[in-house]
Structure formats: C-alpha cells, structure tokens
Amino acid sequence: MNSPRRILFVDSIHHVHSVGYYRAALDSTGFEDAEFTVVTSVVSAEEARRAEAVAQLQSRLHLRFLPQHAPINRRSQCSRLYWQAMKQVEAILEREQFDFLVYLMVDHALPFFALPFASHWFPGHFRMGVRGLAFRHHGLRQTATTPRGKCLEVFDRWILGRALRSGVFRRLSFLDREAARCAQVLEDRPVSGGGVDPVDFPDRDRTQVRTALGVAPDDFVFLMFGALDERKGVIEALENLRAVAGPTDRVVALIAGRVTAELRPHLEETLRTCNFRVVLHDRFIPDEDRPNYFAAADCVLCPYKNFAGSSGVLLHGASGGALAVVSARGVMEDAVREFGFGEVVDVEDPAGFTTSLQRLLRLSPEERTRMSAGARAYAHTHDFRLFMGQFFAPDEPKF
User: Fold this and answer.
1) Are residues 179 and 319 in the same domain?
2) DSSP 8-state assignment for residue 388
3) Which pLDDT tens digits describe the chain residue by residue (399 residues)?
C-alpha cells in the first residue's frame, strides 16, 4: 500500500479566511488521503487558538507556527516577514520530504524568486517546484492610478517575468484574469486565471438569523464585516448612507468585527449622527457565527481604500445572494462588473457613492432577483472544492 502524499502548504501570514483554505485543501478531490502540513504565522494568541481548533478536528492537517508577528502596517514589514518565512520553509525542505509545495498569496514571494541568486538562496524551492495562488499586484503596489504607481507597475511586470523565467514555478494561478493575461504575455505559457478563493455555502434560515441579530424581515441590511479599521472605508460608507436613507427605506447598518482603537473614536462620533439604525457587534466573530451575518445581509459594503485584492467578505456575501458595493480598480470591481451584482464606487467621490447607494435601495424586485442570481453565480465559480484541483490537474503545465 502506497504511503499518503505529503503536501507542504505555506500560508505565510494567517488571516481571517485562512481556515477556509485549509479545509479546501483537505476536501480536494483525489487528495482525500494526503497529509497536509501548514506553515503559518499569526498576529495573536486568539488566531493561533482558532487555527489549532480546526487542526484538532482534522487528523490529516498538521500546523506549524512561525514566530508570531506584530500587525503589518508597511509593505517593508510584509516583505521582511515573507523573506523570513521562505527561509524557514527552505530549512524544512532540507530536513523533510514532501510531494508538493503550495504557497497561498505567493505575490510577496515573487520578488525574491526574481533575484539573480534566487536558486542559491532557495535551492529546496527550486528543486521541488512551487505551486502558488497569486492575487493581483505581486507584492509591490495596490493601485497604478498615481505616477509612482505606474512606475511600480512596470517594475511589477519585470519582477513577474523574472520570477516566471526562473524555473521555480510548476503552476501559478491568479485570482483575476487581468494578472493572468499579464503573466501569459510575459512568459507565453499557460497560466491559470480567475483562481479560486474558497467559500462555503452554509444553510441558514434568513428569518431566524435576522431575528437573532435584531433585524426585521423587511429591513434593508448593509453589512460591514471583519477587522474594522480606516482602510475599510467604514466612516465614508456610513456618511453616504446618512445622505440617502429616507424614513421609508428601513435601512440598517450591521457592523460586525473588532474595531481598532484608532477608528473607534471617529466611528462613535459618526454613529451619533446616523439617521438610520446601526447594529454594532464590536468583537471577534467566530467561524460558527460568521454565516449568520451574511445570511442576514441584503448588501455587503466593501469600499476599501487603496485596495486591489480579493475579499472574503464579498465572496461570503455573494454565496447568499447579497448585493455588493466595492472599490474601483481591483479584483472586486472585476467580479461585480462581470457578474452584475452591485455597484463600483470611489470613496473620494461622495456624490457618486451616494448615487450608487440610491440605485440599490430603489431596485425593483425583478432587478434585485437578477442581481442576486449574479452574486450566487460568482460565488459558485469560487466553490472551495475547486481550490487545490487547479494545482494538481493531470495535464499540469510546467513553467
């Protein structure tokens, strides 16, 4: 009898959706017997306990924690953390044998694989070959709308080309097709586009969860979810809702997640001026409670600032048919425009933001049903069970 395959799964920076990726790996068709060793780092003991709780229920999932890190506020901190993680993974590869090496969010590793002496620094990575899921901007920037951003975009493409030609990748999948097309042009080889960010589809009774959360059946619920800081555009969303909410709209803002100390004073001041109901759950939302919030939502608000990546908030909302308000110039805009289930806004344009919110509040039942169907279609293209299959397909291309 053959021994089970061993897969090293590197999640350098553990985040709120990481557990979903771990479960997706375990559920991959054809890999039901594989042993997964996850290498990750956390920012808090709470995150560690959350990940450990999942591992305790999964005999094929083995966690190895890198040193705990502080919250990341600058790209230089992120790059340093990735370098340290890659060197520690290299040490693991020197000691142990694995069948596959998979990186989640390989964006920030690409600049290191593009170095002239990358194969010298990371011989184990090059020997095995890396499978990786990349997001949009390869670790250097979040938007190319500024002159500096445009220069970095050129540098980005150079790094991506160098990394692809280094020979380290066995498969690289991008979360959006724009980045996949860029890689295709640079390397002229098959690149997976529209990669998957796993999302499950829990069955929740909408009326029951709304009652439990203190929301009425005929309320229009805007959900803001996750770690809440200035980057999430919470204040701007509330101010624009204040400008459009009428007495007959029954607007409710459901805010769920831990509010940072820096944001809290501004948020409290803004809440005192809201002309609509706000339900604030300022706390960490455990995995088992998370689906309730998305089942209760009519629309998820993701007007993130200077953000071009994906969002688990968008996906989880879409799995329940929720509409969406998202930032321009990013993966979220790509999804909303293609599947037609929301509005794209610029937080620096209050008039446009307000108009978008008004359109959503005035939708006819037929329009809303059609857009909700688009949201579910988007979510189903990101079914978590598809996640690992893209890396281990029989016709796997070699870079």
Assistant:
1) no
2) G
3) 567 889 999 998 887 668 877 887 887 777 888 899 999 988 788 888 888 988 999 999 999 998 877 766 566 777 888 899 999 999 999 999 999 899 988 888 999 999 999 999 999 999 999 988 887 656 555 555 566 667 777 788 888 889 989 999 988 887 666 677 778 787 777 666 655 565 667 788 999 999 999 999 999 999 999 888 888 999 999 999 999 887 778 999 999 999 999 999 999 999 999 999 999 999 988 878 889 999 999 999 999 987 766 678 898 899 899 999 999 877 788 889 999 999 999 988 999 999 999 999 999 999 999 999 999 998 887 766 666 666 666 555 555
310, amino acid identity: S
Enter the tokens of residue 298: 């009519």
Parent domain of 218:
206-380
- Residue ranges of the alpha helices (H) in the chain? 18-26, 45-56, 75-95, 110-113, 118-121, 123-128, 147-165, 177-187, 206-213, 234-244, 264-271, 290-296, 312-319, 331-339, 350-361, 365-380
Taking phi first (over 0 means left), then psi (-120 to 50 degrees means alpha), and beta for anything else, what does residue 395 get?
alpha
Domain count, the chain: 2
Is residue 398 in a domain?
Answer: no
Contact 229, 263 (CB under 8 A): yes
Phi-psi group of 226: left, alpha or beta (phi > 0 → left; psi -120 to 50 → alpha; rest → beta): left
Residue 182 shares a structural domain with residue 251: no
Whether 397 is covered by a domain: the verdict is: no
The whole-angstrom separation of Cα 221 and Cα 103 is: 36
Residue 221 sits in a domain of what CATH number? 3.40.50.2000
